[in-house]
Amino acid sequence: MRNPQFLLFYAPLVPLDTRMKQLTTEDHVPPRQALRMRFFWFLAGAGLNYLLIATPFKWLRANTELPIWGISACSIGVSTSFFFFWNYFINFRSDARKRDALPRYIGAVACMWALSSTTLTLLKHSDWHFSFTVGQFPLDLDIVATQFFLAGLKFFLYHKWVFPVPKEP
């Protein structure tokens, strides 16, 4: 950074355009490209979520004597913690203030963690050894099913209660 005195001296000499630029259609991303990017990020998030649940689950099952419910709670907790911090501190998108949304957000996260842990525990307790292999990478379908079963509730909970759309005046 330059010397602050330099900036103060030359500031009146350099005109700044302080008017807000009007957005034109060229400034917007085309709808098909936006849809593709949203779908890409959806798949990337789903893949990361799967890995954040499956990796600790496999490690805890192989290296500890924890019961299935403990392993499920810990592995779902890893994913929940990561996405809580990511969504709240980095990717917060709402007209609501963070401080106002925090109690609802914590409640929703706790509710979804409990439901996800319970669902995964029930599916693993009656493990039918369902798996699907993508290349040489086996997917644990119990983990996929847990996320699939609760996706609609999660969407409704977050978009209607935690971060509601402001009402039109």
Could you characterize what this model shows?
The structure is a single chain. The protein has a two-stranded antiparallel sheet with strand order 1-2. With 169 residues, the chain is mostly helical. It starts with a helix and ends in a 7-residue tail after the last helix. The model has no long low-confidence stretch (mean pLDDT 79). It is built from 5 helices and 2 strands; from the N terminus they run ααααββα. It is globular. It has one domain (32-162). Helix 3 runs antiparallel to helix 4. It has helices at 4-10, 31-63, 68-90, 98-125, 141-162; strands at residues 131-134, 137-140.
Helix proportion range: 55-70%
CA distance, first residue to last residue: 45 Å
Structural class, please?
A: mainly alpha
SSE order: HHHHEEH
Number of domains: 1
Average pLDDT for all residues: 79
Poorly predicted parts = none
Q: How many distinct beta strands?
A: 2
Numbering strands along the chain, what is their spatial order in the largest sheet?
1-2
Sheet having the most strands: 2 strands, antiparallel
User: What's the tally of helices?
Assistant: 5
The proportion of strand residues reads: under 5%
Shape: globular
Radius of gyration: 23 Å
